[in-house]
Amino acid sequence: MMDLGLLMLQDMEKERETLQVWKKRVEQELDRVIAFWMEHSHDQEHGW
């Protein structure tokens, strides 16, 4: 039988890995959105 503390540590590590994956995904999406708006938000005609 595994120690409860060891199981908890393993669960915490899995959660940490999941959070790291989500963090990377959010960073990539934000970079993509910011790049889009930096390219498309300037109004050449009215200067906004």
How would you sum up the global shape? rod-shaped
Topology pattern, helix = H, strand = E: H
Query: How many extended strands?
Result: 0
Largest sheet: none
> Terminal Cα separation, in Å?
66 Å
Structural class: mainly alpha
Tally of helical segments: 1
Radius of gyration: 21 Å
Taking pLDDT < 50 over at least 5 consecutive residues as the criterion, the unreliable ranges are: none
Q: What fraction, in percent, of the residue positions are helical?
A: over 70%
Mean pLDDT: 91
Percentage of β-strand residues: under 5%
InterPro entries: 6hp_glycosidase-like_sf
Protein name: Renin binding protein
Task: Please give the structural blueprint.
Elements lengths: L3 H37 L8
Protein name: Renin binding protein
InterPro entries: 6hp_glycosidase-like_sf
Plain-language structure description:
It comes from Mus musculus (Mouse). One of its GO terms (biological process) is carbohydrate metabolic process. The protein has 48 residues and is mainly α. It is built from 1 helix and no strands. The chain has one helix at 4-40. The model has no long low-confidence stretch (mean pLDDT 91).
